[in-house]
Amino acid sequence: MRRPLLALCLLALGCQGSPAPTPGIEALKPAASAPDTLPLSREAEQARLAVRALSAVELDAIDAHERACDDAALSAAATTSDARVVTVRVADARYDSKSLLPLSITEPLSLPNLAELDGAISGVSGPEASARAREIAEGVRTRRFIAVAHITRFAMPRWIWRLGHKKPEWVAGHLEAWIAIHDAQSGERSCQTRVWVVNDTKDAPLRRRLRGDTRDRLVDALAEALVAELPKAIRRLTGVLSLPESGKLALSQP
Fold first, then answer.
1. Selection from 204, 226, 17 nearest residue 105 by Cα
2. d(CA 22, CA 156)
3. DSSP states of 51-110
4. Which residues pair with 153 in a beta bridge?
5. pLDDT tens digit string along 64-76?
6. Which 3 state secondary structure label does DSSP give 244?
7. Rounded to whole angstroms, how far apart are CA atoms 144 and 140?
8. Rounded distance, CA 238 to CA 74, Å?
9. What separation in angstroms does the CA of 163 have from each of 157, 167, 205?
10. Binning pLDDT at 50, 70 and 90, where does residue 122 land?
């Protein structure tokens, strides 16, 4: 009887030697696997830092006054033709903004799209796109100024049916922006001019079932009108600075 009692005692006191490994414990250990992405080259890392620095520039607040550029000062600050090409950004400067600006308005005015550029440099879109993104980033790094579209007013087009009227109607949407030239290093504003665009709803369909699609097309038309006004605004402001040659600086361009 002593041997069974001794065995039970040893079991109760945990004195049976080294415990057997718990099933499944190895599965909890992190597996030694290759990293998801290869480390960035020094060139890619420098390009990425340049893009992120440009994205982080804090811009001077806008004020609603026309202000001409001093071309002599701009020329002294940007001494090469490459440095005088501006990067284009959008800033939501509405005082009573209750919703985000539509992407159809903000995306066409990001030249280049800095978030997309950052991702492409990291290699998420493949080596060719990464190489192209580094080329674009190098060009962006040399630019001294940013042209910023400060959106100060935006109203969506609205489909309404007035009491006593026989048919519905569209209330035109509108968009106000101050196009300002900012220093890409300090964010200081040099000059600015106002741009105002409004929808032409004369031929907009009035059928209820087309209301959503028609509203989207009218918002797109506002964005297109603002993009068309941007070069005119830059020419009004300065004879020194210029926009990128391509309206949309796509990563797939040769």
1. 226
2. 63
3. HHHHHTPPPPPP-SS-B---HHHHHHH--STTTTBPEEEEEE--TT--SPPPHHHHGGG-
4. 176
5. 899 999 999 999 9
6. coil
7. 9
8. 9
9. 19, 10, 20
10. confident
- What is the greatest pairwise CA distance in the chain? 107
Tell me whether residue 159 is exposed, middle or buried, using C-beta atoms within 10 angstroms of its C-beta: 0 to 12, 13 to 18, 19 or more.
buried
Encoded tokens for 76? 């002294």
Structure tokens at 30: 């992190």
Q: 32-35 long-range CB contacts below 8 Å, 24 or more apart?
A: none
Q: How many percent of the chain have pLDDT more than 90?
A: 43
Q: What is the mean pLDDT of residues 135-155?
A: 91
**pLDDT value at 178 more than 90:** yes
